[in-house]
Amino acid sequence: MDLPSLDSLVTPAAIVDLDRVEANLQRVAAYTREHGLRWRPHTKTHKTVELTALQLRAGAAGATVATLHEAEVMASVADDVLVAYPPVGPQRLARLMALPRHVRVTVALDSREALDGLGRAARDAGRTVGVLVELDMGMRRVGLQAPEEAVALARAVADTEGVRYEGITFYAGHVRTPVAEQGPVLREQASRVGTFVTALAAAGLKPPQVSGGSTPTLWRSHEVAGLTEIRPGVNVFNDRNSAALGACAWTECAYSVLATVVSTAVPGQVVIDAGSKALAKEEGVDPAGGYGALLDRPEVVVRGVSEEHGLLDVSGTAWRPRVGERVRVVPNHVCTSVNLHERLHVLRSGAPHATWSVAARGW
Fold this sequence. Notes:
Elements: E1 13-17, H1 18-35, E2 38-39, H2 49-58, E3 63-65, H3 68-74, E4 80-83, H4 90-97, E5 104-109, H5 112-125, E6 129-135, H6 147-159, E7 163-170, H7 183-202, E8 209-212, E9 229-230, H8 240-245, E10 255-263, E11 269-272, E12 292-294, E13 301-305, E14 310-313, E15 326-331, H9 334-338, E16 343-348, E17 351-357
Helix pairs in contact: 4-5, 6-7
């Protein structure tokens, strides 16, 4: 089948540089091998079966998902799936239990209510589901606050038929400190994790797994003593936030949105056809502000977006494109952008290579 060239694509379109993707995967695989860490990447970033398969071939031990739809899609290629979201409600539990029997299913939870529902559903389905007790490391979103709470819930997990206690999990997504400056926050994180591990061990519930990690802290994960598993998602593609924090080089950004210049009428501004419905309207950490930057001209920032319009600030550059020219934008946060697109147009050595469905997009 002939693949469309970049020039023939209807814009906005999601573009993936496969050479950069594979280099990103090899880098994290080498890092985890060096430090003895299990790698279970989060698929919420790409939501694409082909990319999960690439991660597994590169050395990932399984897949992490946020939704049951992601779990259902990724179970076609992964036989180890962690649902990093509390399994609350009969509909969610029914879909969880309907996952293929050969798939080793683990869930993260932080309440007795979620545990009781999971246990009943697992017993009724005649299967056993792993449980990671979720801790709060400062993000204040989900997770238990105190070691005694973790001990109580872990004991309940160990005593509940239909589930197995697999350890603890956390996500320190609030850490947006540049990589070079993360030492103090990682030492604090290690100390806090240590208090939980010590309390659990003293209760005879030493966690077999301590699962954590994120893309911003990826390359310093080994500094969190006791961590056994990391679940980075963004690093498969990287994005403008990752580059601004020093978690990747700009040349390691593998995802961009192809857009067409549609207006140059306002001085100092270029308008493209990629707005919030293609890039997402998410504030970033780059001091220059905006919602993205051009792949080949990172000094040109998307300073504003409406639904179908992206406003490029060209006041500080001599570059002046014509209407009809095309540009590629690296968004601040890649995960939210990918979820807005039905397919990824994949390049190999700059040439069309494949078109992949974003099969797990949506809720």
